[in-house]
Structure formats: structure tokens, C-alpha cells
Amino acid sequence: MSRDLLKRVRALVYIRVIVVTLLLGSFYVFRIGYERLHYPTVFSLFIVVLYLLTIIYAFVLRWIKEPSQITVFAYLQIILDVIAEVFLIYITGGIGSIFSFMFPLSILSAGILLSRRACYIIATISSILYGLLIDLQYYKVVISTVSFYSEKDFFYNVFAHFTAFYLVAFLSGYLSDKLHKATQSLQERDTVLSDLKAFSRYIIESMPSGVFTTDLDRKIITFNSSAQDITQLALNQVAGKSPEEIFPFLSNCKEPLDRIEGEIQRNGETYPLGMRLSTLKDGAGNPIGMIGVFQDLTELKAMEAEVKRKEKWAFIGELSASIAHELRNPLASLKASVEMLSEKKVSGEYADRLMKIALSEMDRLNGIITDFLLYARPRELNKEPFDIHQSLRDVATLLQGYETGKKNVTITPKLEGSLVITGDAKQLHQVFWNLGINAVDAIPEEGKVDIYTVRKSHRIE
Fold it and tell me: pTM to 2 decimals?
């Protein structure tokens, strides 16, 4: 507020110079009514004094800063202007002077510079001084250049001027209030706007993510502190440059703008970034530039790698458990076959059959270990014709030697002849063996397991 008042007071000083130069200077040059002046030299000195006062005012304005001092100085200037106007009217004819219109200018100045109250104060001072001058002229206390004005003329002149002074004061005060309220409203709006801008700036500066904005020419104009920390670049190093110069991977970004990942070089090392680009718009929705929000993904990538590593080890653990289960089954078959052979209570033909089964289970063990070494990659199916009944008979033979504690379980294969199908013999043999073991384990004390096949259309059960 004080700064605005100081500007207006300074403007009054300059306006005074213009008024003195145009009005009084033209009066002096064109000598309109100049012959009625009693003291022409005094008029010239009066103009010089006004210029000197203006210089003094300008000099004093450099030293006053406090609002109260500025207000007092404004009152002082306007009151001195009123006194100067009274003196000017006196030396240019008094009641017949053409310069009485200058009083309203001072009243208007009071309204613009100060307040409605100041308008009435200056109007009152103007009325008192002007009325005093006219009274002195009427009673011939001062020299008058006119003698043809009657008493009514003097009275009406004073009344008309007083009325004009207060009307101007009223209008000027009204306009002054409107002006001050409008100024205050604008100042409050500017304050709110400044606060909002500062608040927005604080938010952007406080964000952990890097933020930059550009103008319509794609030149960077803002670069928050997080962006400077991530890129190790100061604002003055990126201002005026395009985003592609700072983030080369943006050259591959296609419209419409979306999220993109790339890398930047920092201190000779490469760092991953994730960035989202969008159009920056004003309050009316018009595009005014671009905004980019980005983050350093180094920690995130490290976390992802750690998660993948843990998932891999978890998978290996599950795979190991599965491998242990897969190894246990053929080992059980081998154990049963070897025990039956060691007892030497089986026929030669049956012993040969047990030996073939043992060798087959060894091959299956080798296959399982091979798959594990290949990181448990599922091998391709080896489809070929084979006798499913023979595979089931082999499983039945192995199950007969499978120890299940003190259980009394009878394995009965009800398979007649041969039944040739196309499939992976090894994997199906493993399936049959797992089913057989599960069946034996499900029997509490004693029971039997029947193994047979049923043909249904093109399907074998």
C-alpha cells in the first residue's frame, strides 16, 4: 500500500510540472489577460517558485519511506497547491480570474492519493481560503482589478464555488473509495495468486519425483530439486534446452504422450529412469507446454531383480521337492526288485523280468537327473506304439515288492493279452506307478488293488 501511495505522490509531482508548464506557461507566452496583472514580475517569480517547489518535492521523496510520512507529505503538497492557487487567483484578478478551476484539481488529487475524508478536508480549505480572498477583495482590503461586480455577484460567486468544491469532493471521494476498494481487491487477488503460485512451487519442489515443464517451443523452464538430484544437473544447465537433450531416450517417444522408460548417463554410469509425459494446459484448457514426471528406477530394478532371484530359488526348492518325490518312486521299485532277486526265490524267467524292470528304473532315474540338470525343462513327448498291458504288468510286479509296513495288500493284474496304444511309454509308466503307490498307501491295514483296462470307443480307461 505504501509503495502504491509513493508512486502516486511521485506522479503528482510530475503532473504538477506539466500543468505549470502548459497552463501558466501558455498564459505567460500568449499574454491572455496579462495586461490586468498588477505585478507581472511577481507572476514570473511565482512560476519559478512552483518549479523550485517541484524540485524540492522530488528531492524529499527520495528520503521518506514510512507510510505515515508519505501521507503527511501528500497532504502538505496538496495544501501548498491550494495556497498557490489562491495566490495565483489573487494576482490574476481575484473574482474574475480564469484559474479558479484549479481548486477542483487539488480536490481530485486528494481523492486519488488519499481518501474520501481528504477530499472534504481539501474542499473545506479551498472554500475557506477562496472565500477569504473574495471577502478581502469585496471589502477592498486587497487590490482588485474589477469594480463592476455587485454584492450579489460576490455572494453568488462564493456560493457557486463552494458548491462546486463539495460536489467535486463528493464525486472524488466516491470514486476514491471505489478505486481503493478495487485496488485492495486486486492486491488481495494478487496475494492469493502469489500464495497459490508459491504453494504450487513448494509442492513441486517437495515432490520426491523429478518434474520439469516446457513452453510451447519445448524449451525447459522449470526443473525441480529432485530432478536436479536425479540428473546431477542444475537449473541453469538445462533451462532453454529441449527435453531430448537432457533425456535422449525421449527421441523414441511416440504420440500420444505416455509412460516411457529409458536410461541416462550420470558420472560415467548408466541409470534407468521411468517417465510420464503429458500436455501442460492453462485454466482455459489451452496447451501451454509439456510436463514430465520421472523417477530413478535403480532401486526398483534392484528390488525386481531380488524378487526374481527369490522366485527362482523358491522354484528350485519346489523343483527339488518334486525331484525328490520322483526319485523316491523308481528307487522304491529298484529296492523291491533287488530284494526279490536277493532272496533267490523267484524263477529264472521272473528274475529276468525283474532285472529288466530294474534297468528300466535306472534309465528313468537318469532321465530325471538329466531333466533337473537342464533346469527342469519339460522334455518333448516321445510318442510311439507300446503295449500298455505290459507296462501295467510291470507296475503290478513292482507293487508286489513295495513295502508298506505290516499291510497285507494283494496286487491283482486283470490284463488279458496285449493292448497296443501310441504314447510316451516312460511318462505313462511313471503315471501308473504313482497311481499304484497312492492306491497302496490309501489302504489302512489290508486290502487289494485290481489293475485292469476298459475300452470305451476310442478311449482306454
Answer: 0.48
